[in-house]
Design goal:
Elements (H helix, E strand, L loop, with lengths): L2 E6 L8 H14 L3 E6 L3 H11 L5 E2 L1
Parallel strand pairs: 1-2, 1-3
Length: 61
């Protein structure tokens, strides 16, 4: 089973990024994929999470 990491910044912009990330996770799981949500606080936080997670996931989103 492929494992996806969904990185999102819930504070960025005016759209509901958390809801979009949750919908994406649900879609992936409904299609036989494993998905983990990972909220960030800043660009630097996102970069740090990618560096730490690159080995444990098949796809970073």
């Amino acid at each position: 089973m492929k494992k996806y990491l969904i990185i999102y910044n819930g504070n960025a912009g005016t759209s509901d990024n958390k809801k979009i990330a949750e919908q994406t996770k649900l879609y992936l799981e409904e299609h036989g994929r494993s998905a983990v949500l990972s909220p960030t606080q800043s660009r630097e936080d996102a970069v740090s999470q990618v560096k730490q997670s690159v080995e444990g996931f098949d796809c970073l989103m």
